[in-house]
């Protein structure tokens, strides 16, 4: 996988209450990813960017909500979420990898 694709696969971390609990208790981290990304691409991208070993990847498609606006009905964009489980002894630190 080329370097350009690595940066297009991972769009950013997804921060929520559930994601925080997963990170603390199970060493699993949640990312927003490209909608066309595969589990293998996500695994390689995380291993390359953060220098960790990935045990498994779970993905799910999140459907955008329908919202009422002043102009009528609108819809938020659909997106894809990936839960990345790290191998025992591995940890992921977002602050030290920002370049």
UniProtKB/TrEMBL annotation:
<keyword id="KW-0689">Ribosomal protein</keyword>
<comment type="similarity">
    <text>Belongs to the universal ribosomal protein uL23 family.</text>
</comment>
<protein>
    <recommendedName>
        <fullName>Large ribosomal subunit protein uL23</fullName>
    </recommendedName>
</protein>
<comment type="subunit">
    <text>Part of the 50S ribosomal subunit. Contacts protein L29, and trigger factor when it is bound to the ribosome.</text>
</comment>
<dbReference type="GO" id="GO:0005840">
    <property type="term" value="C:ribosome"/>
</dbReference>
<dbReference type="InterPro" id="IPR012678">
    <property type="entry name" value="Ribosomal_uL23/eL15/eS24_sf"/>
</dbReference>
<dbReference type="Pfam" id="PF00276">
    <property type="entry name" value="Ribosomal_L23"/>
</dbReference>
<keyword id="KW-0699">rRNA-binding</keyword>
<comment type="function">
    <text>One of the early assembly proteins it binds 23S rRNA. One of the proteins that surrounds the polypeptide exit tunnel on the outside of the ribosome. Forms the main docking site for trigger factor binding to the ribosome.</text>
</comment>
<keyword id="KW-0687">Ribonucleoprotein</keyword>
<dbReference type="InterPro" id="IPR012677">
    <property type="entry name" value="Nucleotide-bd_a/b_plait_sf"/>
</dbReference>
<keyword id="KW-0694">RNA-binding</keyword>
<dbReference type="InterPro" id="IPR013025">
    <property type="entry name" value="Ribosomal_uL23-like"/>
</dbReference>
